[in-house]
Design brief:
Structural class of chain B: alpha/beta
Number of domains of chain A: 1
Helix content of chain A: 25-40%
Order of helices and strands of chain B: HEEEHEEEHEEHEHEHHEH
Strand order of the largest sheet of chain A: 3-2-1-5-4
CATH architecture of the largest domain in chain B: 3-Layer(aba) Sandwich
Radius of gyration of chain B: 23 Å
Distance between the termini of chain B: 33 Å
Number of helices of chain A: 2
Structural class of chain A: alpha+beta
Number of strands of chain B: 11
CATH superfamily of the largest domain in chain B: NAD(P)-binding Rossmann-like Domain
Shape of chain A: globular
Number of domains of chain B: 2
Number of strands of chain A: 5
Helix content of chain B: 25-40%
Shape of chain B: elongated
Oligomer: heterodimer
Largest sheet of chain B: 6 strands, parallel
CATH class of the largest domain in chain B: Alpha Beta
Distance between the termini of chain A: 19 Å
Number of helices of chain B: 8
Largest sheet of chain A: 5 strands, antiparallel
CATH topology of the largest domain in chain B: Rossmann fold
Strand order of the largest sheet of chain B: 8-7-6-9-10-11
Radius of gyration of chain A: 13 Å
């Protein structure tokens, strides 16, 4: 729900921060949040919203910081046994695709 | 793009974004993150970088707005012979509205719970002392008027109505308007006895059984609720159940 995080995003933008938005764009199997769930991260490290039950937030936070720095959007994939790209997994056994983009 | 999206959301307009999130080949000319905004009436803003792709994504966005769903879709990449692009279409719909008829203690308990669940909250009461702004400072809107006046023209498939006064003078006019609308949920507070008397009155007023089955009465899921907060919880539990029914 973007309406929940809009006030935070507006506050960050007002103080001059850059912002990245992470959105769950695809899920397979059981997953804690629905497609469309969002987490916003500011360049100064503030967080609003969530994309999982906490399992992948750390990795998504890092990706948001990279995206803010590079200005380039990217698609992340998280799964149970997916240790190649990320050192995180989902305890629930599902997979989640998260799209991270700079706010423009 | 964010400014336009932000404005549509604040104004309660239905809007969708179509975002290019992946492409099969690395050399494609369409950059990841390109975005188009699609309004419910078909207007668009921005572009995915190709007119044909825009046209198809616009059509699918309008269908998803209608269904209220988000989805990742695959399209042929217009810039490559065999490749494909993945477009994420996300819909932003206006918040559902919960109309509470009666500025009573249960409405007082409903407002904060309903807000947490994403509802816009509207209190309706003809009695100013009950429906004062002060008493309902947290509500998004307080309407001091007879329920039929207040509700006429306001109810859609995105509306939820909880009739809470126990007083036929206020409850019945609200139910008349709600039953003649597309309201997604109509609940009425009161015991089974009160509810049966209410159904009799509504039948006399010309409503048929099929129409009357739309009313959830006695209101709320049966969880043994006693306090106003518990009753509010049972009402919202029922509303959430109805929200997720297809």
């Amino acid at each position: 729900m973007i309406s929940e995080i809009l006030p935070d995003i507006d506050r960050w933008l007002a103080r001059g921060d850059s912002v990245a938005i992470a959105t769950v764009v695809k899920t397979m199997g059981s997953s804690p949040r629905q497609v469309g769930a969002k987490m916003a991260v500011s360049s100064t490290g503030s967080i609003a919203g969530s994309v999982s039950g906490g399992c992948i937030e750390g990795a998504v936070f890092e990706a948001c910081q990279d995206v803010i720095a590079s200005g380039r959007a990217r698609l992340l994939h998280f799964g149970v046994a997916d240790e190649t790209a990320w050192e995180v997994g989902l305890a629930c056994g599902g997979t989640i695709d998260v799209f991270v983009e700079p706010l423009r | 793009m964010y400014t336009a999206l932000h404005e549509a959301i604040i104004q309660g307009q239905a809007v969708a974004t179509a975002t290019l999130i992946a492409r099969a080949s690395e050399d494609g000319a369409l950059p990841i993150g390109t975005k188009m905004l699609v309004y419910a009436d078909g207007r668009t803003s921005g572009s995915l970088g190709d007119p044909g792709l825009d046209r198809r994504a616009r059509e699918d966005s309008m269908a998803l707005l209608e269904a209220g769903e988000n989805r990742s879709l695959e399209y042929a990449d217009p810039r490559s012979e065999s490749g494909s692009v993945q477009i994420f279409i996300e819909t932003f719909l206006p918040a559902p509205e919960l109309f509470m008829i009666g500025g009573v203690h249960i409405a007082h308990a409903l407002v904060p719970l309903a807000k947490v669940l994403g509802f816009r909250t509207v209190i309706v009461d003809a009695r100013e002392a009950f429906a004062s702004q002060e008493r309902f400072a947290q509500a998004d809107e307080v309407v001091i008027a007879w329920p039929d006046e207040a509700l006429t023209g306001r109810l859609s498939a995105n509306s939820y109505v909880a009739v809470l006064t126990h007083d036929p003078k206020l409850d019945d006019p609200a139910l008349h308007v709600a039953l003649n609308s597309k309201a997604r949920y109509i609940g009425a507070l009161g015991s089974l006895k009160t509810h049966n008397a209410r159904l009799l009155r509504l039948r006399e007023a010309g409503f048929n059984d099929e129409q009357l089955t739309r009313i959830y009465g006695p209101i709320g899921l049966s969880i043994g609720a006693k306090t106003p907060a518990e009753i509010a919880l049972s009402i919202l539990a029922q509303i959430v159940q109805v929200q997720h029914q297809e």
